[in-house]
């Protein structure tokens, strides 16, 4: 399978036909037709259904088109990476809502300043939804809540978080999981790593037998806890970003509260924008480390 033939194949699809593709590539139509036939011969199956003068992608052609697009994009990324030019294009980034609110504003601001030619698209979601999105190439990288188990994913530790159980200030302190017996639980839907941490702290295999109020916003969770609707587990950094949150913080053992937020990406598929983000994250972490040592 010839890479140039894949480029011609994709151009034919993008331009909607042989003649327009030939004009785009500055070739004669007969040459384009020959190259398409060579590609079909190499894969051993028709890529188009031919209807008079019109071409329609076959199911195999649709499948190959996705691979061709990825190979062409990867080739372009490699060219930019080895040429030393500044990264450009689109970076599709995912993050937990907690990380987005408490950790990313300064990081993304600095990223925009350093790499103005990269357009950033940010998606928030639960830990499991973000892992799935990176695995399936829907996004390029993501900040999640726990080390990924998939061998398809690479990762680097980024932010250290401490989780705390919050309760209404009118309730007594919660010192152990037994003190939470009978309390309603407020949590993100299934797929949230912090929800699993809450389950482990409560020593439960699931929360299906508990009274659970599922919400998808930390502001809503804090408001409900403050009103006495139940208890929740959340990062202290998020609470620090809500100075007027009227809730009680209840410490839990460090073995269950201390976690590290990793940045994940597909192994062997680090595009220039992802490499730039990884480099920035590492440099900012190193700068914070030097600041702590000097102080």
TrEMBL record:
Please report the stretch or stretches of sequence annotated as the HTH lysR-type domain. Answer: 1-58
List, alphabetically, the SUPFAM superfamilies matched.
Periplasmic binding protein-like II, Winged helix' DNA-binding domain
A GO molecular-function term, please?
Answer: DNA-binding transcription factor activity
Keywords from UniProt, A to Z, are: DNA-binding, Transcription, Transcription regulation
| Domain of life per record | Bacteria
* Role description: NodD regulates the expression of the nodABCFE genes which encode other nodulation proteins. NodD is also a negative regulator of its own expression. Binds flavonoids as inducers.
Its name, as the record gives it, is HTH lysR-type domain-containing protein
The upper taxonomy is: Bacteria, Pseudomonadati, Pseudomonadota, Alphaproteobacteria, Hyphomicrobiales
């Amino acid at each position: 399978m010839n890479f140039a033939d894949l480029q011609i194949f994709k151009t034919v699809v993008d331009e909607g036909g042989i003649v327009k593709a030939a004009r785009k590539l500055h070739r004669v139509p007969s040459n384009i037709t020959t190259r398409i036939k060579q590609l079909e011969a190499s894969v051993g199956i028709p890529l188009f259904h031919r209807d008079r003068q019109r071409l329609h992608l076959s199911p195999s052609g649709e499948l190959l088109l996705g691979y061709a697009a990825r190979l062409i994009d990867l080739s372009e990324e490699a060219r930019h990476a080895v040429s030393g030019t500044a990264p450009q294009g689109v970076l599709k980034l995912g993050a937990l809502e907690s990380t987005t609110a408490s950790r990313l504003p300064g990081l993304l601001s600095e990223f925009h300043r350093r790499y103005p030619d990269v357009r950033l698209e940010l998606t928030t979601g639960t830990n499991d939804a973000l892992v799935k999105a990176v695995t399936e190439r829907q996004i390029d990288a993501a900040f999640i809540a726990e080390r990924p188990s998939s061998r398809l994913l690479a990762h680097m530790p980024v932010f250290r978080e401490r989780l705390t159980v919050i309760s209404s200030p009118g309730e007594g302190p919660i010192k152990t999981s037994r003190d939470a017996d009978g309390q309603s639980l407020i949590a993100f839907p299934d797929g949230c790593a912090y929800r699993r941490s809450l389950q482990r702290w409560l020593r439960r295999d699931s929360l299906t037998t508990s009274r659970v109020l599922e919400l998808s916003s930390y502001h809503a969770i804090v408001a409900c806890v403050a009103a006495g609707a139940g208890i929740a587990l959340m990062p202290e950094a998020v609470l620090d970003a809500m100075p007027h949150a009227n809730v009680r913080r209840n410490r839990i053992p460090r073995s269950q509260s201390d976690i590290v937020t990793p940045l994940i990406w597909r192994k062997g598929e680090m595009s220039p924008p992802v490499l730039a983000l990884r480099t920035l994250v590492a440099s900012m972490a190193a700068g914070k480390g030097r600041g702590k040592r000097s102080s």
